[in-house]
Structure formats: structure tokens, C-alpha cells
Amino acid sequence: MDNHIDYYLLNLRVARGCSEKTVSSYALDLRQFKEFIGDKSMHALVTADVRRFVAQLAKRGYAKSSLARKISCLRSFFDFLMQTDAATSNPAAAVDLPRHRRALPTVLYEDDVDRLLSSVAGENLVDRDRALLELLYATGCRASEIAGLKLADIDWGACTLRVMGKGAKERIVPFGKIAAQHLQAYTAGLRAKLVTDKVTHVFVNYRGSPLSRRSLGRIVDKYVRRGDFNGVTPHALRHSFATHLLDNGADLRVVQELLGHTSISTTQVYTHVSGERIKAAYNKAHPRA
Length: 289
Hints:
Helix content is 57%, strand content 4%.
């Protein structure tokens, strides 16, 4: 089974363009399943084997979202084996995904975003940090997308970024005047002093090397703690970007394109967030709420 797993993971990387994070997660899922079934032949596997595997993980306290991912992984794996004639059936196909209520994302109010962005001061790399936070909120990009951004990806005239998203899918994302001002100040000033001509990434550390996604997260966390915000991550700025657009009348399909979501249902969670915000405002303001 090891050879089949390796071939499948290679297919995820090369043919489907999945991220290393996705490939690593699927590798873990498949190794867990292999350990569970032991020496049982792959051709002898039945739906009951997959159900017992899922039940065992549930007893160990795995979240429903994690169980759903593992089932989806096994479905995809056995579909791949059937396509390559390495299997004749998919034992995971009839296993239902556990139902779970999708948690609403953390979203900042607009004045909280202003307060967070304004807290960037008094640092040696203040120009970089302000440009970084402004761009995260202005574009709704993922942390990995901003960390991987290169100078050639910026169209200064159109105020857009060329972003490589999940599954190696490219999209064009606009950014506004305020983000442009801070980004220009950083790239022409501090960044130019830190980097050599060989470095093409936009955001770098004090040594002039490209920022990793983890380092970007630590930068955001520093200002989150300074402003005493709870549960705010780089992704919360992405959530806030989408919610504020919808709050101010943007079309759901447009927001889907900006975020790079394949399915509109993924974007629709932000309509629920807006509804929750409306309800919270009503409960706070109405005398008989």
C-alpha cells in the first residue's frame, strides 16, 4: 500500500497542484488508515473497515471536521486507485460525512480594524509591518499568498496584485489607495535598504530574507496583543475583508472571486456573519430587544 500512497501524494502535488500543507495532511490520514488495517489486503477492504476506522478516531476525540477530512481523503485515494486500475471499488464512498455546524469566523468591526492598523508604531520595521497589515486587509489574501508575493506581482498603475492561490490558481486582486501609499513607502524605502537584487519577495525580515508565513503570523500577533484583541489571526483580516465588503453592498460572486473560493458555498458563510452582526446591533440598540 505504501507505493500506492506515494504515487497518490505525487499526483496531488504535480497533477492537482495541491499545497504542501494539504499533501502533508492527506499523508497523515493515509498512514493512519494503513496502520489501522494492518496487513489486510487493499482488495479485501470494505465499507465496514472505513467505518470502524472513523469510529475509532471519534472515540479518541477527533473533531467532526477532522473526521470529515479523513473520509474525503480516503474517498479521493480510492477513486484514484480505481482510475489507475489498482482497485476495483471505493470502500469509503458509502461512508457519510459527519454533520457539523460550521463555526462563524472571527471578524473585526471596521473601527477595530482602524485601531489595529493604527497600533503599528515605534518599531524598527514599522513601514514593513504597516504595509503588511494594510495589504492583508485591503486584499483579503491568505497569509501564505502575501508571504509569497513578489515585486513583479504588483501592478502599480492598476493597483492590483497577481496572487497564486490554492491549487496553483492565479487571480488578480485590487488594493486601495491607503494600502498603495504604505506599500510604496515600504518598497521604496526600508525594503530597498535591506535587500539585494537577487531577492524578489516583497516582504522581508531585517536580514533581507523573504518572510515565512509563520513569521508573518508572529508580526500580526504582536499588534493583536498590543491592541488586546481576542482570537485575531491573519485569517481574521481576510474574514473581515469579506464581511465588510458584503456589509457595504458588494455582490457575493465578486467576493468569491476576490477570495479565490472554488465554491460559492464557502463564501456564503460571510452572509451569516453579517446576519449575526445585524442581530447583535439590534439587541444592543433596541429598547425592547
